[in-house]
Amino acid sequence: MSTTTSSSGKIETMRAVVYDKPFGVVVKEVPKPKISHPQEIIVRVTTSCICGSDLHMYEGRTAAEPGLIFGHENMGIIEEIGNSVTTLKVGDRVVMPFNIGCGTCQNCETGKTAFCTVANPGKGFAGAAYGYVAMGPYDGGQAEYVKVPWADFNALKLPPGNEHEDDFATLCDIFPTGWHGVELSGFHPGESVAVFGAGPVGLMAAYSAILRGASDVYVVDRVPERLAKAAEIGATPIDFTKGDPAEQIKKARGGKEVDRGVDAVGYQAVSGDGKKEQPNAVLESLISVVRATGGLGIPGLYVPSDPGAPDSAAAKGYMSLPFGKLFEKGISIGCGQTSVKKYNRYLRDLIVAGRAKPAFVVSNHVSLDDASDAYDKFQRRVEGYTKVLLKPSA
User: Fold this and answer.
1) Which neighbouring-strand residues pair with 65?
2) pLDDT by residue (tens digit) across 199-245?
3) Which residue, 30, 57, 347, 367, is the most exposed by fewest CB within 10 angstroms?
4) According to the model, what pLDDT value does residue 27 have?
5) Residue 117, burial from CB neighbour count under 10 angstroms (0-12, 13-18, 19+)
6) What single DSSP character describes residue 304?
7) pLDDT tens digits, residue range 41-88?
8) Mapping DSSP to helix (H, G, I), strand (E, B) and coil, where does residue 182 land?
9) Closest C-alpha to 339, from 163, 177, 203
10) For 56-73, b where at least 16 C-beta lie within 10 A, e where not — what string?
11) What is the CA radius of gyration of the chain?
12) Percent of the chain having pLDDT more than 90?
């Protein structure tokens, strides 16, 4: 499959990863985006990532309809700019937060860009993103090109060239989201942290806690390759199939609980045997393992409706929790999507300075044409597929 050009020599179409049906994506030729507002830019995508959040749509657990172009983690080179763009130029290398902000609403002005009230009107909630169901009319970037609205606000400039490409790709979502999970928990240097989930966000949360001076970090999962990654960065891996993870952690600490906990799993948590979904499993464990007056950070996704939920309550976004124990222990909770712009500039500079190397989480580089196979393997968590980077030009 190849792109087509007009008689004037301009590229008219492009290849893109398109949702087809539950457990099915296809690479199709679609119209190349065009500038329709003077504050927009067109970026030639050099790297786009498959995210765990994409799997919710891929598995048919959302209202996503066939034809949706996936991809909310995107970076590349600016090819075209609108005539009102002032801080960017053609040829700049940029990375975009997964969430789209207008830059001028109350939430954007106070740094809460994940909850922009302008970018996604009429949906009944605040927040917009590329290539995600109900998050606005913005095509994703698992494609050769992507359009960026309010570009001066949403595109972060990177050093030219291709150095740190994999590291910078994590700035779209997973590195800021992992950092945000630790921030939401109320973490202070020297404290101990338990992270549930050793997918990309969980590993980034553990890595962020280590960078920020955690005394001990525990990472809970059941996938051997992911637990091995956690051990590689200096965290203590906990396999929840070998017993209650909260009790395993407390036993390792001589009976002591941890100061902070991070839920990097969300609503598709599973029971101890890994055979059935139990949406409240992680939250119950965190309430058990975090000390009195400690804190929970919850960047893991929870949804108000789930067509594939294991029970009628979960289908409406409800779940049971030991709220009495939560209250008794005085545990604080912070939750919600990450306002990436709050962190991405500083995390970029940590990468440039050599202080942070988040690309350790990357497991596979895949051409756009192999996206369907990559989604299948990532969803089944086989062959070490942990973080997959799509390369449209490969």
Assistant:
1) none
2) 999 999 999 999 999 999 999 999 999 999 999 999 999 999 999 99
3) 367
4) 97
5) middle
6) S
7) 999 999 999 999 999 999 999 889 999 999 999 999 999 999 999 999
8) helix
9) 177
10) bbbeebbebeeebbbbbb
11) 21
12) 91
Q: Report the run of H or E that residue 21 belongs to, with start and end.
A: strand 13-21
177's enclosing H/E stretch is helix 174-184
Q: Distance of CA 302 to CAs 29, 176, 273, 319, 354, Å?
A: 33, 18, 22, 11, 34
SS3 for 373? Answer: helix
∠ Cα 27 30 32 (to 5°): 125
CA distances from 109 to 104, 117, 144, 342 (A): 6, 11, 32, 11
Three-class DSSP category at 153: helix
User: How close are the terminal C-alpha atoms of the chain, in Å?
Assistant: 13
Cα 132 from Cα 343, distance rounded (Å): 22
DSSP 384: T
Q: If you write DSSP's letter for every residue of 31-83 in order, what string do you get?
A: EPP---STT-EEEEEEEEEE-HHHHHHHTT-S---TTPBP-S-EEEEEEEE-T
Question: Which of 37, 382, 347 has its CA nearest to residue 173?
Answer: 347
Exposure string over 18-38, b if 16+ CB within 10 A, otherwise e: bbeeeeebebbbbebbebeee
> What does the DSSP 8-state code read for residue 270?
B
**Could you tell me the sign of the dihedral formed by the alpha carbons of 359, 361, 365, 368, in that order?**
negative
